[in-house]
Design brief:
Blueprint: H1 17-34, E1 50-54, E2 57-60, E3 65-68, H2 71-74, H3 83-95, H4 106-118, E4 125-129, H5 132-147, E5 151-155, H6 164-169, E6 185-188, H7 203-221, E7 226-232, H8 247-258, E8 261-265, E9 289-292, E10 304-308, H9 310-315, H10 331-346, H11 349-371, E11 375-381, E12 384-392, E13 397-398, H12 407-418, E14 421-422, E15 424-426, E16 429-432, H13 440-458
Parallel strand pairs: 3-14, 5-6, 5-7, 7-8, 8-9
Antiparallel strand pairs: 1-2, 2-3, 4-10, 9-10, 11-12, 12-13, 12-16, 15-16
Helix pairs in contact: 3-10, 4-10, 7-8, 11-13, 12-13
């Protein structure tokens, strides 16, 4: 199955396909000559050229239309080219393109108000950053200064960013080349029943044993030395492992018991992705700090931030906070956030994500698991789902080893693209993470393509 725009003489931009292809060819040539790509061996990649995008779709360098089931890096929560956000950026550019962060401006003030209205509890102060990694950097700095402690705990199978502290917080193989002992980070095992480290047989056991493990680690490391625990409310890139009932509440209780700050990383899971404004809302828990980025303005202009509780904000009431960024609360980025949050509210986009997950994606993916023996497990919330591919359901042997890809996974990814689907893939998983605006028809289209593609994965299962 191939979905193509070749028969369409114009792209959504109104540009002719031939003209767009010519631009795309030049862009690709310049990219290969001059652009240094992240997380890549530079001579081993052939990056896809994108000619245009609209809603849930992108057009590649050949003019093929692809259903974006990746939301790029799981950030285009309101889809591509949302007209209200585009207009807001244009209007802000005509009014005030940039201003230093020490000056108040209406875009940043309104964005902070809208975010604070949606955070749980008393997280009513917002420090703006340029993205998720530096949001986590600053949240850790705030926790360390507030507590006077240095160590920070984070889980294996996590991702918190590519900057200095954030990459050390990260619990996946991208940390390894950047890892050093004096970062002050200690990793622990979080709950993941499908690949349980605790030999659990059910969610209750997984919760109890994971919390016992965390508590023991804290006691062995020294509670008075630990500033914070950093957890993705629902881990994203690492596998969309929804915490079992009681786990997040248990972490909150442990933090309270030892005077440790609880940082909820909502960079990927926030702003509607799981069918709530923040994923932590599913668990009825209020952290001390929330980090965010991506979905706050769907990545239209780089923006991130930290939502801060009253007790941590009070630490810096008469004591200067030693941190800042030239572009903190940039007016173009915060104007895009205001328009994004307003559109999400007005168009009930968060509710759409919840409905699509409950009625279409969840049942549809479970149906695929019934039909395809290469699926070991599907799991997720809202428009935030992982498909775990295995060669053997009994042994749970992954289709690609942890930390790497494989020829089999590369075939699956290629089949997705050939079928008209742009996937998000990591190790042995395909993630179904379309925009929160995805329609029922688009979600079913994606499921149909996956159904065809997974025949390729089935061919690699052990007999």
């Amino acid at each position: 199955m191939t979905t193509t725009a070749v028969s369409q003489q114009l792209l959504p931009t109104g540009q002719s396909l031939d003209a767009a292809r010519a631009e795309g060819e030049r862009a690709y040539a310049l990219d290969r000559a001059h652009v240094f790509h992240s997380w890549s061996a530079q001579e081993q990649i052939t990056p896809m050229t994108i000619l245009a995008s609209e809603g849930s779709y992108v057009w590649d360098g050949a003019g093929n239309r692809l259903l974006d089931f990746s939301s790029q890096l799981v950030n285009t929560n309101i889809g591509h080219q949302h007209p209200k956000v585009i207009a807001a950026i244009q209007e802000q550019a005509a009014k005030l393109c940039t201003i230093a962060p020490q000056y108040a401006n209406d875009a940043r003030s309104e964005a902070a108000r809208l975010i604070a209205e949606r955070t749980p509890g008393d997280l009513n102060k917002v420090f703006f950053t340029n993205g998720g990694a530096d949001a986590n950097e600053h949240a850790v700095r705030m926790a360390r200064l507030h507590t006077g402690r240095y160590k920070v705990l984070s889980r294996y199978r996590s991702y918190h960013g590519g900057t200095d502290t954030a990459i050390n917080l990260t619990g996946d193989p991208r940390r390894w080349p950047n890892d050093y002992g004096n970062s002050g980070v200690v990793h622990f095992h979080g709950p993941f029943l499908y690949r349980s480290q605790f030999h659990s047989e059910n969610e209750q056991q997984e919760t109890e044993r994971a919390l016992e493990h965390l508590d023991q680690l804290i006691r062995l490391e020294g509670p008075s030395s630990i500033a914070a625990i950093v957890l993705e409310s629902v881990p994203g890139t690492a596998g969309i492992m929804v915490p079992p009932p009681g786990y997040m509440a248990g972490v909150r209780e442990i933090c309270d018991r030892y005077g440790i700050m609880f940082i909820a990383d909502e960079v990927m899971s926030g702003f509607g992705r799981t069918g709530q404004w923040f994923a932590i809302d599913h668990f009825g828990v209020v952290p001390d700090l929330i980090t965010f980025a991506k979905g706050v303005n769907s990545g239209y202009v780089p923006l991130g931030g930290v939502a801060i509780s009253e007790r941590i904000a009070a630490t810096f009431a008469d004591r200067p906070y030693p941190g800042g960024l030239t572009y903190s609360g940039h007016p173009l980025a915060t104007a895009a956030a205001v328009a994004t949050i307003t559109a999400m509210e007005d168009e009930r986009i968060v509710e759409n994500a919840a409905r699509i997950g409950a009625e279409i994606l969840g049942p549809g993916l479970r149906g695929l698991a019934d039909r395809h023996p290469s699926i070991g497990e599907v799991r997720g919330l809202g428009v935030f789902w992982a498909i775990e591919l295995v060669t053997d359901r009994a042994t749970k042997e992954p289709l690609a080893p942890y930390g790497t890809s494989s020829a089999a996974m590369n075939e699956v990814i290629a089949a997705c693209k050939a079928g008209g689907l742009l996937p998000f893939a990591n190790f042995n998983r395909i993630h179904a993470v379309p925009p929160c605006t995805v329609t029922e028809a688009e979600a079913r289209e994606g499921l149909a393509i996956l159904n065809s593609v997974l025949d390729t994965a089935d061919e690699h299962r052990n007999s």
